[in-house]
Design a protein that fits this description.
homodimer, mainly alpha, 4-stranded mixed β-sheet, 12 helices, 6% strand
Chain lengths: 253, 253
């Protein structure tokens, strides 16, 4: 990830060096875009990042991503970018097999894809909490915990450090990470909610191990910073560059 | 597909021969389950089918498919079945590569997966029409046509008989088929709605070619039969065995 600002309405198209690198159209706080950053970083694939203001989208974006979506991955020499985070990540895993993220066993790979799909049972209530739209926060937190049980059980069953083995995070680990990184927001919003340390012992250890992985560090933002952005979004005018401005302020103070 | 009845509440678990074959838990009129039938048939993989009454599910289903969903694919020797139609189909394509359905080129495969994903823009309004829940049928039909434009354009661009080439249907073809098979229902419901034969010339030709494919014939039901089932569903008590009963009646008359 770079520290650049988000391109918005009225901006000119970024002039990138003609160095044949992939270009990722992203948004700094988007968990789906982060999935692609994680895979690119885990595989040490060099790429450019172009951040997009999703509220006031630049007019030229339609030339780069016809559906105006992020994440979108531009491939040198290809007219149309790839979209959909899971499609992009699977593509990268097949195209750059040096660091393999999916299992090479079809059945294990299929089970891993089901685990990734079923994480929507965690993402849904989490999203409600983060966007302050949950009608009953206690109930939403309970739903998150119910959803997480499957992952705690699965880690116990596998008996490995990561879902992808003992050496390093695999595809399941990386696809689940963006929401894990944001999970501490719940505690920041209300200190009533802490994950049960016994019930989720494996997942908590996993979260710590993940946070120390170099690929994860590449796109890591603290829950405090995620929350800062979400609070600007809550007001109706999200400040995509809140961290850029903060860095500037720190430099000039 | 077999011609058996759907297992429902109170039924005993089916006793299948111990012949090491895959078992597909299915519902005769479910388009997502049909995707798996199509892939199994296209690859000539032998399997058993167990049809499930989705309104009055058999109690034992939870032992076979913990989320009580169909399609679910039971693999001999494995405790838990695979679920999610696309996950199952991708698994079968990797596990049984003799007849390859996905492209071996990662970029082409990724683009094909996006085509399959984006078909939801057709499935959504089609489903509203079929279930008689569209508030404005003319508008829903317009949405279907708008969604189909991408596929007409893509077939023209590829210049092949099928999305997967000239020889035989590939993964895109098979994943789109179940809704194509049902598309004539719209005309049965109201003869006002016919696909514009010039605008969709390639897709109409494709539909005819697909209908002649042996794998497609294996699970084919006429739009009239699909509609018969949908009409029983509309009354609130879907008759899953409507074709079984019909066959019986024909035999005894």
């Amino acid at each position: 990830m770079n520290n650049g600002k988000h391109y918005s309405k009225g901006s000119s198209m970024p002039q990138l060096p003609k160095d044949n690198k992939l270009v990722l159209y992203s948004m700094r706080f988007c968990p789906f875009a982060q999935r692609v950053h994680l895979v690119l970083d885990a595989k040490n694939i060099p790429y450019h990042t172009v951040y997009i203001n999703l509220t006031e989208k630049p007019e030229w974006l339609v030339q780069k991503s016809p559906l105006m979506k992020v994440p979108a991955l531009e491939i040198p020499g290809e007219a149309e970018p790839l979209i959909e985070s899971l499609v992009i990540c699977d593509y990268l895993d097949e195209k750059y097999p040096q660091v393999k993220l999916h299992s090479t066993d079809p059945l294990r790979k299929a089970r891993d894809k089901i685990l990734i799909e079923r994480f929507s049972s965690v993402i849904g209530p989490m999203y409600q909490i983060y966007t302050f739209s949950a009608s009953d926060v206690t109930d939403a937190v309970r739903q998150v915990a119910t959803g997480l049980q499957l992952y705690e059980d699965e880690l116990r069953k596998r008996g490995t450090k990561f879902f992808g083995g003992n050496d390093r995070p695999g595809m399941v680990d990386l696809m689940l990470w963006p929401w894990t990184e944001r999970s501490h927001i719940i505690t920041l919003i209300s200190d009533k909610y802490e994950l049960d340390t016994e019930r989720f012992a494996k997942l908590i250890k996993w979260r710590d191990d993940m946070a120390n992985d170099p690929a994860v560090k590449g796109s890591f933002l603290s829950a405090e910073n995620h929350l800062k952005f979400l609070e600007t979004r809550r007001t109706g005018s999200p400040n995509y560059d809140i961290l850029v401005n903060q860095a500037k302020k720190m430099r000039t103070s």
